[in-house]
Every structure is written in structure tokens, then in C-alpha cells.
Amino acid sequence: MPKEKESLYTRKYRVAWESDAELKGWIGPVLADETKSLCKICKCTLAAHKKDLLLHDSKYSLIIDESTAVDSTKMLCVMIKYLSKKQTKIVTTFYKLIEIEKGDAITISAAVTKQLELDGLKLGNLIGIGVDGANVMISYDLDDGIVCAKCSCPRGLAVCHHMAALCIHAHHNISVTDKTCLWSKRKPAETEQVTKISDIYKPKYSGFKAAQRSATESEIVTLIQSIGDATPVGFTWWLLPEPSVDLMLLPDIEAIIFSNEYTTAPNKEDYFLQKCCVSESIINRVAEMTIGQSNNANWLMARKYRLTSSKFGAVLSACQKKKYPKSLFKGLLEGYDLSGVRAVQWGRENEQSAIEKFQEITGLHVEPAGFCLDECGFLGASPDGYISENCIIEVKCPFKHRNVEKLSEVLTSNENYVVFYDNSSWTINENHIYYHQVQGQLYITNKDMCYLVIWIPKDTIIMRISRNDEWKNNINTLKSFYCQQFLANILL
Asked: Where is the SWIM-type domain (predicted)?
């Protein structure tokens, strides 16, 4: 075709297109080239192509993508690719938006064929079609196998290679949730080789000895005792002697509540109270056998499943609010290991220093104490020592204030602690958990007064707390809590 006639079929942009139902809202002019349009959505330029294809009888390819619009209408977006005689290059541009009823292969093929016929484009000139992957769905039952398979390709109504490919892929790529838990699989037993320390740390030369002589029995006992005086750890536990056989005279709470007699008793609370109560002789014997407290295996065993005075404040607060969180019972069941907490560790390490300072200031002698039981058998207390027949001592070493010069400077009007300094005098905070601990110790040990010692390296405060007769009602509250709330959590 003569070149001078190209201008006769080169279509220019028309403003009327903006009113066309198919083009309205997304097409606009390209100011620099009147032979092109602008897609407002994707900002691409669209060249005129229909007459170019018709006049030159060109070969072309289609790129088809099916999608669902927001109004649930299925649309085919068709791009066309052909050799432009005018531009002397291969052009890919927008061709048509075709509405379809459903997205299967037969419907798509019929819609595209019909549109090409309406536009006068020869189907014989179509040399290629580009589409995205077929939509395949397979339903699989563990017992019956494949029960349903569908594909959007032309052969999807029967069986196609897309279905086969998906089955093969699924076979080799099983979901991790369908596999047996590998972490629960028992590992094969490995033969462990026991190696002597002498084989690991061989002497530098033959006949070498770290000590000139072997340690005596008394030296070994002294070493074990000195290790136990520090913060107890797992290693010191192994060095402790086994609990005394005499401790068996103490009622075993765990054995009581798991016994057939308890589970079948008409009134479980009455049965438990009867089996758990202890005599005065047992109370005195247990207190004697548990001296040394955390360094004594008997003390650790005697406290098991019993409510101790250090927990009285937390329990009374929960009873007052009538709220019993899980954290409360976890703490009562020793679920929290506090031995590694620096504040607790520091307090244990300096407790003896505080007692020695108290003895130096007052001239009073402190006798070591064990675990003292209430006659009910499930309430107990461990004061830090006894002073004469009517007094006990309780020591607190506040880690937070360990570097302070004077406690009166940091505890001034501070009611967040068991004591506070106000108007040139020290006052006891009766709402603090330590106050409930002291009162619980006084009632369970049947003593009249407690020396409360607040110790830091550079200062020491000594307060006297008398037994409060009004506090005695809390003992009944603690017993009711134990029987009605705490026992149920032991059984869990």
C-alpha cells in the first residue's frame, strides 16, 4: 500500500469516545500524540490498532485474563499483540473488555471468538493466546481418596494434565500439619560412656596430688555446712542429709486428699480437718527437727502443701477482694522459684549479719528456729529466731536500699513498706504483707512480741510489734480459704 495513503486510516483520538459505555471513565487523550489514548487507571498509552490490523490483514496474538469485578461481574481483559506497519515494530496494547457469565474455558473461548467476528478480525490470523494458569480444585478424603476434581481448562470437565500435576505436587509436598509430630518421636537409646574425672583432668606428672593429705570426716562436714550457709542451690540439696524418719509422724496432706477415704467421705472438709490436726508433742518435735530452715531437708518437707505465714498477707488480700487468680495458687504451691532472684538471694546471705547486728545493739541472744505448726496441721510459720520465752525475731534486708546511708531518708512517709518514718518517729504499716506475716508468726508460735529488724549494711532499724488480738479473726479466714479454695488446686 502506498505510504502517502497511511494518513487515511490512522485513527485520531475522539472526545466522543469518553461518552462510550465501554470507554467512559477510564480513557483520555495523550496531548503529545493524537493517535494514542491514555488509560487513566494504569497510566498506559493505547495506540489505534483495529484498522491497522484490518487493512494489513496482520497476524496477531491475544493475552487474556479473567477477573471478577467488585460487583461480582466476570470480565475478560484482552490485550492484543501484532506487527504495526506504521510503527514498524511489534505493539502490545489494550483490545477489549468482554463481559462473561462464568469463567470456564468453553465460555471464555466462545466470548473471544464472538468478539473477534464482531470486529471483523480473522480468526485464522490468530497465531497465539497467552493466559494465566488454570484454576484447579481437588477434594481429597483420607478414606475415599479423590472425590472431586475441577479445572477451568477446556478438558477440565473430564481429566486434564493440570489435575494430574496438582496431585503429584500434593503427594510430594504434604502439609506439615498432616505429618506425625517428629518432636514426640522417641530417640534411639545411646550408650553413654562413663568417664572418670581422673581421665578427663590428668595430672601434670606421675604421682601428683592436689593436697598433701586426705580430708578428715570433720573437715568434710564443715565444708558441707559452709556451703549450706550460702544460698541453697541444686548441688547443696544433694549434699543435705535425707529427711528424718521421725518426720513421718507429721500428717501427709497429699496422701490424705488422694486417699479413697477422703474422696468417698460424706463431708470431705470434716474428714480432712480430723486427719490433719496435730498434737502439741508433734508440734514441738517438728519445730526441733526443722531448725536450720532452708538448709534442712526436714524443713522443706514439712512445709509441703501447707500455708505459711509469709503468704498470709497475699491470701487475706485475695479473700477480702473475693478474687483468687491462678498466680496466687501458683505462688502458694511454690510454682515460682525465687532462689535466683537477687533480692531474695541477698536477703538470705545477709540474714545472719542482721541477727548479729541485733545482738550487738540489744545485747539479747537469738536462738535458731524451725518450722512451727498450728494445731490444725496445715498453717505454719518460720520466724528467724526466738528471744527468751515470749519473743521472736523477723529480719528484713531490703535489697532496693542496700546502698543507702540512712533508711529514714528513703522510707519517709513511704507507706509502701512495713515501716515508714514520719514526724521524727517510725510507724508500723498494718496493711503491709510483712505485718500479716509477723502477726501470723506470733499467733502460731504463741508468743507476745516480735522484734522486727530492718537491716542494710550502713543502717539498722529495730521495731517491736505486739500481738494484735483483733488480728486473730484472720486465722479462721485462712483456714476457710485453705479448705474451700486451696485444696481444690492441689487436686488439679
From this structure: 136-171
Closest CA to 441 of 484, 395, 482: 395
Residues in the chain: 492
Strands 136-141 and 145-151: antiparallel
Strands 372-373 and 419-422: unpaired
Instruction: Read off the pLDDT of residues 66-99 as tens digits, 9 standing for 90 and up.
Output: 765 445 567 778 888 887 776 777 878 777 788 8
Q: Is the pTM of this model over 0.70?
A: no
Provide the CB-side half-sphere exposure for 24 (13 A, CA).
Answer: 4
Q: How far apart are CA 285 and CA 254, in angstroms?
A: 21
Hey, which residues does 275 pair with through a beta bridge?
none
Work out whether strand 419-422 and strand 425-428 pair parallel, antiparallel, or are unpaired. Answer: antiparallel
Q: What DSSP designation does 211 have?
A: S
109 within 8 A of 81, measured Cβ to Cβ: no
Q: Is 382 exposed, middle or buried (0-12, 13-18, 19+ CB in 10 A)?
A: buried
Q: Which CATH class is domain 242-490?
A: alpha beta
> Are the beta carbons of 386 and 448 closer than 8 angstroms?
no
Contacts of 285 (CB under 8 A, 6+ apart): 246, 249
What are the residue ranges spanned by the domains of the chain?
3-131, 133-167, 242-490
The whole-angstrom separation of Cα 294 and Cα 310 is 14
Segments of the chain with pLDDT less than 50: 1-9, 69-70, 339-340
DSSP for residue 86: T
Q: Please answer whether residues 315 and 481 qualify as being in contact, where contact means their C-beta atoms are separated by less than 8 angstroms.
A: yes
The owner of cell 477451568 is 152
Provide the CA 183 distance to its chain's centre, in angstroms. Answer: 19
